[in-house]
Amino acid sequence: MDQANIIAAAEQFVKDELGGDSSGHDYWHIYRVWQTAKKIGVEEGADLLVVELAALLHDIADEKLVASEAEGLAKVRSWLVEQGVAEATVEHVMEIISTMSFKGGGKTGMRTLEGAVVQDADRLDAIGAVGIARVFAYSGAKGQLSHDPHLPPRTDMTAEEYRKGKSTAINHFYEKLLKLKDLMNTAYGKQMAEGRHAVMEAFLEQFYAEWEGKK
Ligand code: ADP
Ligand code: NI
Fold first, then answer.
1. How far is the CA of 170 from the centre of ligand 1 (A)?
2. CB 34 within 8 A of CB 56
3. Per-residue pLDDT reduced to its tens digit, 178-208
4. Residues whose CB is less than 8 angstroms from the CB of residue 2 and which lie 6 or more positions away in sequence, other chains included
């Protein structure tokens, strides 16, 4: 299969697998990460086949969607092999998707440029206008309040506390979203993050002003 056909097949595979997920990993999250990764990949001179495949497949093995991460990764690997993707490309894509998740720890430092590009694109989807929309959608789905002035943001959490603990949409900005700008790997990703970060800061300022009836 040529490059364009493999990517089209990956797009269909992801649509079939993720379908109606409501944990913030619906197909449109993948679509946005894919578009953003392509943009950064072009600017940074990355291998676009690896970037696009890793962007499209990065959430298939998410622990919220499959029984175990290992099982999800095995499924992605066999799919890539079935498509006749070159072995080195399969290994590179697998390395990226198995190492890029945030999981509360803010792990950084992808080994390759392509990994750096895809991780940046995934992080960018959590910030800016789309990031704001996702936080409130996620919080609503989990039954959390948008904001509770008596519940302070949590710091130094374990991965388990990060997933399970009680918090609010507004606290999630301090626990994760406002930190992402400084975790960008690539120069172009960082530039995009700065614009999106400013959108969140303006939003929070307006939010607190409205909370106290000041604006
Ligand atoms: P990823 O898989 O991209 O690392 P997560 O699964 O942690 O991200 O989150 C998916 C989306 O849901 C993100 O946009 C994130 O900001 C939002 N989200 C995750 N945890 C929370 C939370 N505790 N409260 C509000 N929003 C959250
Ligand atoms: Ni993602």
1. 12
2. yes
3. 999 999 999 999 999 999 999 999 999 999 9
4. none
**Which CATH code is given to the segment(s) 3-211?**
1.10.3210.50
**CA distances to 96, 163, 177 from 31, in Å:** 17, 24, 20
For 75-107, the pLDDT digits (tens) are 999 999 999 999 999 999 999 999 986 453 445
| CA 59 – CA 43 distance, rounded (Å) | 24
* Segments making up each domain of the chain, as ranges: 3-211
Secondary structure letter of residue 85 according to DSSP: -
The residue whose CA is least distant from atom 11 of ligand 1 is 24
**Ligand that comes closest to the CA of residue 163:** 1
Helix (H, G, I), strand (E, B) or coil at 61: coil
Instruction: From the CA of 168, give the closest atom in ligand 1.
Output: 24
Rg (CA), the chain: 18
Of the candidates 14, 27, 2, 29, the one whose C-alpha atom is nearest the C-alpha of residue 126 is 29
Spatial distance between the Cα atoms of 61 and 84, rounded to a whole number of angstroms = 20
